[in-house]
Automatic annotation (TrEMBL), chain A:
Gene3D superfamilies: P-loop containing nucleotide triphosphate hydrolases. Residues 5-226, 242-468 form the ABC transporter domain. This is Ribose transport system ATP-binding protein. InterPro entries: AAA+_ATPase (IPR003593), ABC_carbohydrate_import_ATPase (IPR050107), ABC_transporter-like_ATP-bd (IPR003439), ABC_transporter-like_CS (IPR017871), P-loop_NTPase (IPR027417). PROSITE patterns: ABC_TRANSPORTER_1 (PS00211), ABC_TRANSPORTER_2 (PS50893). One of its GO terms (molecular function) is ATP binding. Pfam families: ABC_tran.
UniProtKB/TrEMBL annotation, chain B:
One of its GO terms (cellular component) is plasma membrane. The keyword Membrane applies. This is Ribose transport system permease protein. It comes from Lentzea albida. One of its GO terms (molecular function) is transmembrane transporter activity. Keywords: Cell membrane, Membrane, Transmembrane, Transmembrane helix. PANTHER family: ABC TRANSPORTER PERMEASE PROTEIN YPHD-RELATED-RELATED, RIBOSE IMPORT PERMEASE PROTEIN RBSC. The keyword Cell membrane applies.
């Protein structure tokens, strides 16, 4: 009756891979339809078929609705301004030239809609990844569309922005827009879903109602129950392995001191812009700093020197997999071996690929993998290097619930072998559940430290602290 | 073999298919093309560009470009003629090192740094030669000679450089790092790859290969000329691109470049055999380069 788009029996092959196998999907006006499934289940492929980016081998798509899609991988032009990105393709024009005044007038309006507080003239490449995601969302909102598809928009967002986005989605639903929403965060699904289609290995294995339990969702998508979402196995802490002392970069972070001991997982929580990623990058030698020291296993590291940091036993899984983590032109295997080129070990490489359950062959181009599986490759590269201390910056972005548990088990194994992990994460349940203690940062400083068992409210109370006068 | 792997094989060898079609068309129009002596000639003609293009492949895979190879070839040959061949090689590698240093430590775009070197190396060639051609010594002349009546050394050298290039690209850490740096420099840096030092070696290799190509050319002609190899950098780049490498980095193979160089040589030879006027030859070559690049980009979709 009010179906805007009706897809029946959609089948899609990539070479020998059957990415979609007879999938049905209805998109109804005034409804949030969630697509749920493991990494590589075919969600993004289905979206791309609906959007006409990929053709399909069999099946029918009916209904003519104007469609806007926010894709899983960001599609902004880094060198252009926020405003120019917002109106890309349909820049307001006057006498044949771009009408900058009109653009500047309309941009703040759109930015306000998504609650983003940035200068419309700022270059997109100077913004954080969460802010970039919000710009993508704002851009999609400007068009008058009857269907909006969002492919894992919340993977890079923190709670505040996610809340804002879910509110916007609820408003759109009330305005009779049909929404398709993909996420690996089951709590978000419970908050907005009207209907949930679960995909497994390219097939639709069930349609659930809005009141489905997380256990039910997990069983349907993974094929087995998961008892413990955060299976942290604590170790008795040993000698300090990573010592960040009084680290300061003027205007970015100040006097940050963090110590991580052998066998420990220390979490760093905080809002976007609190300086967590910046501290992690400075410690690893990617960026410089003004004062302070970083020592690994008692030995101080030279500033701004990644090679020395790696030699001393430090590793960093960066937050932006496409920009900093992966060589997209290379294969899965070539990416995995990047840190360990000097002592390559085929057997361990296949071993790690298996343990992480990377869906894709080692000799396959990494750009053909689904988003979550690409993320596993970035983590695998560093697990192969087996550093004394591994800094993980948002390691499970876009990873499904089952694979997350595998990654947590690998973290447990590292610490059981006397290694240490510094876990930067905006996913509060994760950072609380997997860390032995949580350092909370606010405005570039350490706002406080909480022991195991802290609540989300305690973390947030520290994270939103005002700057001490 | 399944249909998929056949299709994959064909698409990976698009340039090779193009070469075969080209050769077939020319052979049909002018059977003399298939004459053994003519085919050897084609090989020799391809050798200089191919050796230069192999060095260029390293640079392009690593996401750069080297416009100075023609000038470096001329300078190396001239220095070789005035002193000794090996000194020429050394000078070529040094020029490459300077390129690399300007690019990695001076942070100049490769286009600008090597454009400057194009001018400097050509200028030095003119200065040293005082504008005159100079005879090559025995060693260099030998490089351009025939080992046996139907065994030209340039052809063998081309194959040797081909083998070395393939080995470097696929079997050495330097080669693996070229792909990483060209594919995503930031990710390479964060994986502990010393991007700056590796670029130094990559441009030095390109300079060395260009010098070798210059010596082979001079050896063939028996003399080093002040304007030798002018414009060859464009042929080298064309060979690399026809071979399927991407100028945005991270993609490229030794076989592709070899085929690319052969395509250019076959085309020139064929056009001569068919007595196409030289002015028109340029037009045809340009069209073929555009077609090759176009086919490649269609294939990638
Ligand atoms: N261009 C491509 N070439 C080859 N295989 C592809 C391509 N795109 C996707 N695939 C394969 O299709 C399958 C489905 O991928 P898809 O990206 O749809 O997964 P997804 O459900 O979106 O996963 P994720 O949660 O990780 O984003 C995967 O096995 C993937 O490797
Ligand atoms: Mg996806």
């Amino acid at each position: 009756m009010n179906a805007l788009i009706t897809a029946r029996g959609i089948t899609k092959h990539f070479g020998a891979t059957k990415a979609l196998d007879g999938v049905d999907l209805d998109i109804n006006a005034g409804e949030v339809h969630v697509l749920l499934g493991e990494n590589g289940a075919g969600k993004s492929t289905l979206v791309k078929v609906l959007a006409g980016i990929h053709g399909h081998d069999a099946g029918t798509i009916e209904g003519r609705a104007s469609l806007a899609v926010i894709h899983q991988e960001l599609a902004l032009v880094p060198e252009l301004s926020v405003a120019e990105n917002l109106f890309l393709n349909r820049l307001p024009r006057r006498f044949g030239f771009v009408d900058r005044a009109e653009m500047r007038r309309r941009a703040p309006e759109l930015l306000r809609k998504v609650g983003l507080n940035v200068d419309p003239d700022a270059k997109v490449k100077d913004l954080g990844i969460a802010q970039q995601q919000m710009i993508e969302i704002a851009r999609a909102l400007d068009k008058d569309t009857s269907v909006l598809i969002l492919d894992e928009p919340t993977a890079v967002l923190t709670d505040t922005e996610t809340d804002r986005l879910l509110e916007i989605m609820a408003q759109l639903r009330d305005n009779r827009v049909g929404l398709v929403f993909i996420t690996h965060h089951l709590d978000e699904i419970q908050r907005v879903a009207d209907r949930i289609t679960v995909l497994r290995d390219g097939r639709s294995v069930g349609v659930l109602g809005p009141r489905a339990t997380t256990q039910h969702m997990i069983e349907l998508m993974v094929g087995r129950p998961i008892d413990e979402q955060y299976p942290r196995a604590r170790q008795r802490p040993g000698a300090p392995l990573l010592h960040i002392q009084g680290l300061t970069r003027r205007g970015v972070f100040e006097d940050v001191t963090i110590e991580v001991h052998a066998g420990e997982v220390v979490g760093i929580a905080g809002l976007v812009g609190a300086g967590r990623t910046e501290v992690a990058r400075a410690a690893f030698g990617v960026d410089g700093y003004d004062h302070g020291t970083v020592a690994v296993d008692g030995k101080p590291l030279p500033r701004h020197n990644v090679q020395a940091a790696i030699k001393a036993g430090l590793g960093l899984v960066p937050e932006d997999r496409k920009g900093q983590g992966l060589v997209l032109t290379a294969t899965v295997g070539q990416n995995l071996e990047l840190v360990t080129l000097d002592d390559r070990d085929e057997k361990r490489l296949h071993d790690i690929a298996g343990k992480l359950r990377i869906k894709g062959r080692v000799e396959q181009p990494v750009k053909e993998l689904s988003g979550g599986n690409q993320q596993k490759v970035v983590i695998g590269k560093w697990l192969l290097a087996d550093p004394k201390v591994l800094i993980l910056d948002e390691p499970t972005r876009g990873v499904d619930v089952g694979a997350k548990v595998e990654i947590y088990e690998l973290i447990n194994r590292m610490t059981a072998q006397g290694r240490a992990v510094l876990l930067v994460s905006s996913d509060l349940p994760e950072v609380i559940g997997m860390s032995d203690r949580v350092v909370v940062m606010a405005h570039g400083r350490v706002a406080g430290e909480l022991p195991k068992g802290a609540t989300q409210d305690q973390v947030m109370a520290l994270a939103v602290q005002e700057i001490p006068a | 073999m399944s249909t998929i792997s056949i299709r994959k094989y064909a698409s990976e060898n698009g340039a090779l298919a193009g070469l075969l079609v080209l050769a077939l068309v020319i052979a049909l129009m002018q059977p003399a093309f298939l004459n053994a002596q003519n085919l050897l000639n084609v090989g020799v003609q391809a050798a200089v560009i191919a050796i230069m293009a192999f060095g260029m492949t390293f640079v392009v895979v690593a996401g750069g470009i080297d416009l100075s190879v023609g000038s470096i070839a001329a300078l190396a040959a001239m220095v070789g003629a005035l002193t000794a061949g090996p000194v020429g090689l050394l000078v070529g590698a040094l020029c490459g090192l300077v390129n690399g240093a300007l690019i990695s430590y001076g942070k100049l775009p490769p286009f600008i740094a090597t454009l400057a070197m194009l001018s400097v190396a050509r200028g030095l060639t003119l200065v040293f030669s005082e504008g005159q051609p100079h005879e090559t010594d025995e060693l260099v002349t030998f490089l351009g000679s025939n080992l046996a009546p139907s065994l030209p050394l340039p052809l063998l050298l081309m194959l040797a450089f081909f083998g070395v290039t393939g080995l470097i690209l696929t079997r050495t850490n330097l080669g693996r790092r070229m792909y990483a740096i060209g594919g995503n420099e930031e990710a390479a840096k964060l994986s502990g790859i010393d991007v700056r030092r590796n670029k130094l070696w990559i441009y030095a290799l390109s300079g060395l290969f260009a010098a070798a190509a210059g010596l082979v050319l001079a050896g063939r002609l028996g003399s080093a000329g002040p304007q030798a190899a002018a414009g060859y950098e464009l042929d080298a780049i064309a060979a690399v691109v026809i071979g399927g490498a991407s100028l945005s980095g991270g993609v490229g193979r030794a076989t592709g470049t070899l085929v690319g160089a052969l395509v250019l040589a076959v085309l020139r030879n064929g056009l001569n055999l068919l007595q196409v006027p030289p002015f028109w030859q340029q037009v045809v070559i340009g069209v073929v380069i555009a077609l090759a690049a176009l086919l490649d980009s269609l294939r990638r979709r």
